[in-house]
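DATA SHEET
Item: assembly model
Revision: 1
Owner: S.N.
Input lines:
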Amino acid sequence: MCHQTVSLAARHIEADGIPTVIMGCAKDIVEHCGVARFLFSDFPLGNSGGRPFDVESQTQTLELALRVLEGAPAARTTVQSPLRWSADAAWKLDYNDLSKLTPEQITERRKEFEMVKAVAKAKREGT
Amino acid sequence: MTTNVSGGKAVFAEEHDAPIPYMQRTRDYYQALGFSPYRWAHFADVPFAPLRVPLSRARIGLITTAAPFQPGVGDQGPGAAYNAAAKFYKVYSDASDAKPDLRISHVGYDRRHTSAEDINTYFPLDRLREAVTTGRIGSLAPRFHGSPTNRSHRVTMESDAPELLRRCREDRVDAVVLVPT
């Protein structure tokens, strides 16, 4: 949801004449929405700015985003960071992986999601 | 990790070593849980505004989806479970020369592979300040802005995005860096 939100915001800001660049980790969501400039890091969600406690990787990630901001020749410019999260790509299989869930766990997850929605609704209506 | 093709010269990466198809995974996941599929925002036309000043003279704005820490609404620390009570529903702004305490327990980041212990991984304010110091960018806007993450496209497009634009205009920024979680 975060990636879709900033994509919609970037489009709105860009349409008013201010250039934007998104630093993000969900390539399909940003590109499906369609934005001017995107620096994609193939990292788990939550690491758009680079690796934890690795200033060099964070500096390199921001520098790439700034270069995209300067150099994009047209809309829908995506640059993928050359940084790797780990040598083994197995982490990519885990996100919302249904194959590892039993029917009981699926029922449990559904209950949890209903609960989370109710909490968010109460909060939304209270603000 | 790569795979050798027996007898051939080609060495390919593993099939799954590609960007995660989040829209498909999310669709399949919530369908299995019994919810109707979410319609992701999609446009054929994409606006493009050229950068009109060199970055070394540009004033840069920052937009985040992270949330200010809220005492009393449960665990928002590293590794906390999804915490809907920590969500926010209005655009907020804070001084970019402060040290804000921003958390991401209110959104669906990768809790298995990300600890969220280092704010710089989702909020690159320190790195942007360094870019000002080195002269890579001219300056930072006096404020950064926080965007609510709403399932409703309409709320984002008709309410939050215009408010973010209004604040960026007030700050007279030359360009904006947006960082989702």
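QC remark: The first strand of chain A starts at residue 20 and ends at 24.
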